[in-house]
Write a structure and sequence with these properties.
45% helix; mainly alpha
């Protein structure tokens, strides 16, 4: 894997898409592709979590200002992430869902949350 290359280079030009659902589908495909590449690597668990936070999640986080993701879409995305992590032995099937997003030093896995940040307006 080449971690130095930008992960947004693989998303086709936005002009090629007709609808926002096409853009979301392309972002999802790239997101899950990078995630599976990280999980198939021979990194340790801590380094897989760091690679997920620093290399996989930005493909989704960069789109929060451009695309409108609904709560239902993000919850479905989060469920698929947990399913893939279980399939690749990165989490136990019956482990706590809340523990994924708790920082590592407090007993969690320290993964970033897939909810968009709340926009604050300066008044």
């Amino acid at each position: 894997m080449n971690f130095a290359s930008s992960n947004l280079e693989n998303i086709p030009s936005l002009k090629a898409f007709q609808t926002k659902s096409d853009m979301k589908r392309a972002v999802r495909n790239v997101f899950f592709g990078w995630m599976i590449k990280v999980l198939r690597s021979y990194l340790s668990g801590t380094n897989k979590a760091r690679a997920y936070n620093g290399w996989v999640m930005p493909t989704l986080l960069y789109t929060f200002g451009v695309l409108r993701w609904t709560e239902i879409e993000l919850d479905a995305l989060d469920r698929i992430v947990r399913m893939i992590k279980t399939r690749h032995h990165m989490r136990h099937p019956k482990s706590s869902v809340m523990r994924l997003n708790i920082p590592w030093k407090f007993g969690g896995l320290g993964l970033l949350i897939t909810t968009p940040p709340i926009a604050t307006d300066a008044i």
